[in-house]
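Two records follow; treat each independently.
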Amino acid sequence: MNPLPLELQNQLTSGADAADRLPDWPPALEALRRAGLLAGPVAAEFGGRAFGPIELLHAAEDVAAHCLTTAFILSQRDAAIRQLAKGPPHLRERYLPGLASGDLFLTIGLSQLTTSRLHRGPALRATPTPGGYRLDGEAPWVTGADRADAVVVGATLPDDRQLLVVLPTDRPGVVVDSPMVLACLVGSRTSVVRCAGVEIEDSLVLAGPADRVLGAVGGGGLETSNLALGLSAAAVAFLEGEAKSRAELVPVAARLRSAADTARERLHALATTPDPDAVLRVRVDCTRLALRSTQLALLAAKGAGFVVPHPAQRWARQAHFFLVWSCPRPVAEGVLEDLLPAGG
């Protein structure tokens, strides 16, 4: 796939600092709509451009390299699209055309299905009712919730089975909290969505009930690793620029470039030949790469890089997001091993 148009790259880059620090919806999203990129994940029969898996990864990585906040918002929208594409025909027809055109915005709230709450019980509960379900509890991590027409949420039934439903945000009993003040990506307007006796008819069920409705990998897949790779690409490009006048950075930039290229090849191979264990391994490596490359960029930038709005400080903060976003235990253990001193 061709890189993003230069004008779009510049718009993403120029707005990246504000999107990271301010609670304003990134204006670059409208530019992406005009460029037709919002239609990329949607099938042609619904007005989309039907990008293949490699095309989607290339596009998302390119957006992340210029503005991770915008890329994160799109990743949550695209995750909702993937769930809709697997759902019943009437829900595809209801939502996918508007998502392709940009007239609708949907997002997801699935972290409560993959994050342990020890003895507190499920965060979002679904109780069967005649003709549907009643939702009570909360989806604790929903990006763009106050901008969404609906949220694809996961809930747990009394027998511990799970289901996915489309939750229209204007339903009685739905409350969207004020956006959280995150350490980065503040423009994503990530909030808690609370449900108090929200009635959902059977026609809004996307998947389930099932024991593990999200499958073996859970909520974190190739898309998360791909955004970490995009962030790394920005830091590596900065180091390559610095290396033109600083010979000591030439081998540093070269090693990081080689690692990024290898990770990209593995990601793209897995997009067409899935392997749950390999997906987790590449997630570990992409997270490590994001942490290393952004720290090295900050080191190379020296004191100037620690001052807002220099991008090095932003990249370094954003890299830590991958330690908490869709980070299942095998990934956390793999990253932890890299962070601990030798001989412990």
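The next record belongs to a different protein.
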Amino acid sequence: MKRRLLSLLIVLFMVFPSIQATEYKKYSHVFFGTFDTVITIIGYAEDKETFDSVAKLAEEKFNIYHKLFDCYNEYDGITNIYTVNEKAYQSPVVVPKELFDLIKLCKEEQSKLNNTLNIAMGSVLSLWHDARDYSTANPDKAYLPDMDKLIEASKHTNIDDVILDDKNSSIFIKDSELKINLGAVAKGYATELVAQEMLNSSMPSFIINAGGNVRTGNTPLDGRENWGVGVQDPFDPSGVFETIFLHDLSVVTSGDYQRYYEVDGKLYNHIISQETLYPADFMHSVTIVTEDSGLADMLSTVLFLMPYEDGKEFLKNYPNVGAVWYLMDGSIIATDNIKNMLGSKLKEN
């Protein structure tokens, strides 16, 4: 019996003389035009054909979600948030599952968010959007939205006026002047949808950088244990003040340096407080670390709209979420649960 087993092992060795581990190579793909930002995908695949196939599908999905969550433009053959805002006050509008699920999630979460994030603030945000676009194109004529108009628009921001029908996947808006704006959550939510498909693809080792929304997949296949994600320095567009080392997690930053414009020497960012109807100015940036990129996008906006102490207390409701604040006085503070991921001296504080 032993002789027969030895003979079998010899035959197997002869037939398979050099079984080697699969070699993975690093590839990258960059595209622009979705969510008004540059999106970069880096992945480790067996060959370029595999990478190109996965990256192409990811780009296609980003394009679909960009159109679906766009509240400023309509697209042929697509029922998107623009369609909802234009027609849902007349009769219920049936929407794709991804759009319905996102609006439902935001509506369900709103009561937990300390009166900060409200996707029904579209009428207010449109006034700021128009002012920012015009002022950026015409800096000598830069202006701020009229406060009376902001106050009037704020009267049409009741999320309870957005009626959802789960059975029919439809949306009805009771207030004809209420507008939904998903800008605070759409990019992160879309990134997570794409990431989930990539995790189940032939290339689960990847990193997506969607303009401040970073989602990492499995460990990079080059010997490292983690991906390194740099957090931008608010005062240096090409520099970082922190590097976070992780995998299978998201890193999302909201800051006052990303989209802003200037009026009479003062900068106004794009993250608008529901209470003041003006941009929040509690900090320069806040970075969220957690698994789900959609949740990270939502919470980065929420914490940016709160003073640091309030945000620190608020995060106790989310034990699996970490944060790094860059405050107005230049101090940088991180939660204890992510300090072991940090590359700076913050982890020692």
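Discussion point: The first strand starts at residue 25 and ends at 34. How would you locate this feature using only the token line?
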